[in-house]
Each structure stands twice: as C-alpha cells, then as structure tokens.
Amino acid sequence: MRAPYMTRLGLAAVLFAAAVAACSGGNDDPPGGDNPPDSGNHDSGTPDAGDSGTPSTPDAGPDAGPDAGEPDAGVDAGTDAGTPDAGLPEGTVTIPNKLSELGLFTGSPATSDFQPVAGNIPYELTTPLFSDYSLKSRTLYVPAGKAAVYSASDVLDLPVGTIITKTFAFPADFREPDKNVRPLETRILVRQPGGWEAYPYVWNDALTEADKAVGGKVFKNFEFIDAQGVAKKFDYLVPQRNQCQKCHHVVDEQDNQQLLPIGVKARYLNRDHVYDGQTLNQLQHLADLGKLTGLPPAIQIPRAPDAFNTAEASLEIRARTYLDINCAHCHNPKAQPGITSRLFLDIKTTDEFSLGHCKRPGSAGNGVGGEFDIVPGDHSTSILWYRMNTEESGKMMPEIGRALRHDAGSQLIADWIDAMTPRTCK
C-alpha cells in the first residue's frame, strides 16, 4: 500500500464521527467553518487496478501509517461540507475558491499530510477510467443524517450535499512511485438541490493549496518517466468546468443534458479496501456506517472485474468492462454521443451491431483506420481500436481526458477483436 501524499487514518475515528453525527441532529457544524474537523477517517488503500494498465503501477491513494486520532471534541466531522448561502434552496453547498475551505481534507501535499477528514470516505474502483497514467485518490462524502440508495446497475442515488473528490497525481518516475509525487488537480462533483455540479481545483506550485479553476488549465510539456523507464512529455489538461459535461452527462426525457457521476456504481465499488488495518468490502462498509441503504446480500451484488487481471474474468468480459468504464458514459443510449452514433459500449448492450460489429460510424470522417467500428477478427481495420490507439487530436477517443495512449487498454481491445470469429463486413 503506497501513500505519496495521503497518510492513513483510523476506522475508530470514522465510527466515532458517525456516532457524533447521529447524535448531533440538525445543529451540525459544517466543515469549512471556523473550526474544521480533525482528521480521523482515512485508511490504507490498495492500488487501483487498471489506472496504468500494469500491475506494478500503484494508486495515489492512502498508505499504511499511524492513526491520526479522533476528531476534536465537540466538532462533528460528518456534517454538510460548505456553507449554504441565505436564500438558496435547502442543502445548497457553497463552492469556495480554495479546496481547503470545503473542510474535506486536512494538511497538504507540501507537508505530506494531506488526508481526508472523518466522514470523507476513501474508495477505489475495480477498474478505473484511464487518465494519462495519473495516480488517483478518491473520496466520498455523504452528509450527516443522509444516505445513498443502492442500485444494482446505475449510479448510486446519492443525496443532496454529497461531494465526490478525485485527486490526480504523478510521480517523477513510476519505477519509484512513492517518491517525488506531484498532485496536479482535485476534481469535485457536488450534489446540489438542482442536480450535480462539477468543479476543478488546481494545486499551486508549492503544493500548499488547490484553487478553483473554472477555466481549467494546461500543464504544458509535463514530464514523467513511465514504469518501463521511458520518458513521457505531453500537455496535461485540467478541464474547464463546462467541459466536464462532455463525459459526465445523460440526456433526460426532455432532451436536456444532466451531469452524472461515472464510477460510483455498485459493480465498480464491490471490492475490498483496507480501513484501519481491516480489509472490508467498500459497499458493506458504507452500509455499516449508515451511508448506504438497500444493500442486498453480498452474493446478489454485481462486480466488475479488474480488466487487466486474467484470473478474474474472460477476455470478453474484461474487454467489455474496460469499454464500460472508459467509453460507455458517452456511448450509451442515454448520452448524446451514443444517441448520435448508435454505438453503445455499455455493459448492458448485447446486440452485436450496437456494439459496432460491421457497423459503419455515423460521422467518423476519413483517416480513422477503417470503414467499420469493429471488423471481427481484425483489430487493425477497426475504427474503435484505431481511435483508442491513436494520439492524434481530433481522431482519438475519448476526445478529452487523455493525451497519451493507454498501451495496456489498447492491447486488451485489440486482443478482444482479434479473438472474434472473423467476418467480412459489407
């Protein structure tokens, strides 16, 4: 378990904070006020399977370390983050200009003690979305007295006031992933009374604070050395706030686009995580804390495999899982790119034509590797593989969120297509 910039906190403090929150009723002091809660929730984490596509690449998440202790007496660490403005709908979270003012974390990467407060719960995904090999640490904050509702297939129904965070970081050299780790940004998704909102925060050069960056930022000529010792240089994009909707959206019955989280689905959360030295199932942990209702028996909960672990599932299922987490937030029947292209890459789709077999794209243009989305038996003439494999702007997929090729992901999809029964597409 490795922790480039987050240290580990104790489960005892989590339970303590939950108990305080349960007893404090509606008079909770919100994090982000004058007296932010002390640390007391964070844990040890295992590497995210699939962030880099190699088993040796770790998560940027928490590592083993001493317990940070219990929250300060009299302060509830499980209350609503942010401060509602007078006159706004009940439950509205005011979004500050500085990440620290949300009250979700203590410390900073500069002092190697950046960690979530009690009630801001770390989690991982069985197969995460690829983002230029960045290491990611994720947290889920559900306000005191509220809980998410379980869904077997869709995003958990998270209550107003929920905040999801994801911090992106890079070590200088992935062969020494615990050293010289540089976080670039922390993105947050906030469930407001009117729906989800997205905000990027960019870490300053001193790594003492992350500032809200509605207009995004480009880290020009950003460099690191990959796990194979190859130097990489690219432009890392922190998306503008309005660009977040390109991936995080669905289209409702009135054809309006609505923002929606991607990874917080039961099948991706159904994995173990280490909390205060105890290995616990993440979903069961949330339920035990009173933060998730409707959880069925473990045998009934779906689980997406680690797409790069051959022992967990067949090639077919692992490839479909990779497409589901990396592509299906756009290519599904309820998202505009899927509606336009009629290419559906979500795990529910079983129709081969909708999956791209011998299907001509609606508007792929020229020079995209072939004529059909998938030519069974031949990845080299399949547009789907070409657009995943290329690094050429305007042709690669996804359109934003990456600048580099995911070598392991590209190879997985190539192997899947080549293993199909060959067909002549006409």
Automatic annotation (TrEMBL):
Alphabetically ordered keywords of this record: Signal
Span of the signal peptide: 1-21
Transmembrane segments: none
UniProt key word Cell cycle: no
Region span, Disordered: 25-94
UniProt biased composition (Low complexity): 25-39, 58-78
Matching NCBIfam families: chp_HNE_0200
Name of the featured protein: Lipoprotein
Gene source species: Myxococcus llanfairpwllgwyngyllgogerychwyrndrobwllllantysiliogogogochensis
Taxonomic path: Bacteria, Pseudomonadati, Myxococcota, Myxococcia, Myxococcales
